[in-house]
Amino acid sequence: MRRTTLLGAVALASQIAAQSTTIPIAPGVNMPIVNLGGHFHDPGNFSLFLELGGRGLDSALSYGTSSQEKVGAAIRSGSVPRNEIFITTKVMCCPRANKTCDDPRFANLTVAQQVDRDLKELGVDQ
Questions:
Q1: Are 48 and 71 in contact, with CB atoms under 8 Å apart?
Q2: Strands 56-58 and 22-26, sheet pairing
Q3: Potential cystine with 70: which of 28, 43, 49, 106 (Cβ 3.0-4.6 Å)?
């Protein structure tokens, strides 16, 4: 039942994504309005989302290496050129902005180090 529900949600999101436009977030940078989140999904959901027209994938280091690898595998599957896929991610904290991070995995990492680690887990260079 859960898999069927997830696949149905992915199919619906994909239909919306295929019909959706993007929004400009910086000069020359447009972000898809609909993104598929990277947490708790089957690897096939990401590939299916891309095949059905979705172009935005969401990730975060806090989702764990396994989730990151699933998102990365879909990106590298070749079903959609990398330059058409928009990846969003999140950082846990900003140590140089006088914020504390309760997650010991990220407590001593700068934002740049978190982004580098995220790219490595996703297996992409940008």
A1: no
A2: unpaired
A3: 43
101 contacts: CB under 8 Å, gap ≥ 6:
92, 93, 95, 107
Entry pTM: 0.72
Give the tokens for residue 81.
């050129």
pLDDT 10s digits, 79-109 = 789 889 999 888 776 555 555 566 667 667 7
DSSP collapsed to 3 states, 87-123: EECCCCCCHHHCCCCCCCCCCCCCHHHHHHHHHHHHC
Are 30 and 24 within 8 A, CB to CB? yes
Pairing mode, if any, of strands 35-36 and 56-58?
Answer: parallel
